[in-house]
Amino acid sequence: MVAIIDYDAGNIRSVEKAVTLLGHEAVVTRDRDAILSADHVILPGVGAFGDAMAKLKTYELVDTIREAVDRKLPFLGICLGLQLMFESSEEAPGIEGLGLLPGKILRIPEGEGLKIPHIGWNSLSFPNQGRLFQGIAQDAYVYFVHSYYLQAGDPQIVTASTEYGTVIHASVERDNLFACQFHPEKSSEIGLKILQNFLNI
Is 8 exposed, middle or buried (0-12, 13-18, 19+ CB in 10 A)? Predict the structure, then answer.
C-alpha cells in the first residue's frame, strides 16, 4: 500500500491516479497509523512553502513524517514535497522546512527570455546514479511547474539536474529518501517509469 500524505496541497489526486494506474493500492491520508503501515510514502504537492509547513504542523504530520523516515520506509517528495524536505526556502524566510536533507530552496533567477514560474518540459542529466532513473535515457524530458529550485547541500545526493537560467537539482536520493522537483505523474511514460522504479524499492 502506498500512503499519499494529505495536507490540503494541490495535485494530490493526480499522484493517486498514477499510482493506481501502475497497479498499486493508494490511500490519500493524514492518519499516522495508515502512513506508518504503508510500504511506500509519497509527499506530493503544489503550493507555497510557508502555507504547506503550517498545514503539516496543524495536521500533526511533521512527527509522523520523521517517524516514517526513521523506519526506513521508501519516501518520495514531489515538487513542493521535495522543497519541504529541505532546510529552508527563500519563498518563506524564517520558516524551517522538515530538514530531512541538507540544502536550501532558492528563487529561479530572472533572465532574458525566461518565464517564471518555469512551466514545461526540460531534459534531465544524471550527475550521480539514482535508483529512480534505472532504464531512463540521458536527456529524457520531464514536466516542471515551479518558481523555486533546490540547491542541495551535498552534491553526492543529486541524481538528476536540469538547466533553466541556472543549474537546478531536479532529483535527489539518499538511503530511503527520494525527491523530484518535476512531476513524474505528469511526465507521460518516462514519469510513470520513474514512479514504478520508486514503487519497486
Answer: middle
Dump pLDDT digits (tens) for 59-110. Answer: 999 999 999 999 999 999 999 999 999 999 999 999 999 999 999 999 999 9
Q: Which domains does the chain have, with CATH numbers?
A: 2-199 (3.40.50.880)
185 is catalytic: yes
| Known catalytic residue at 91 | no
pTM: 0.97
Catalytic residue among 40, 79, 118, 146: 79
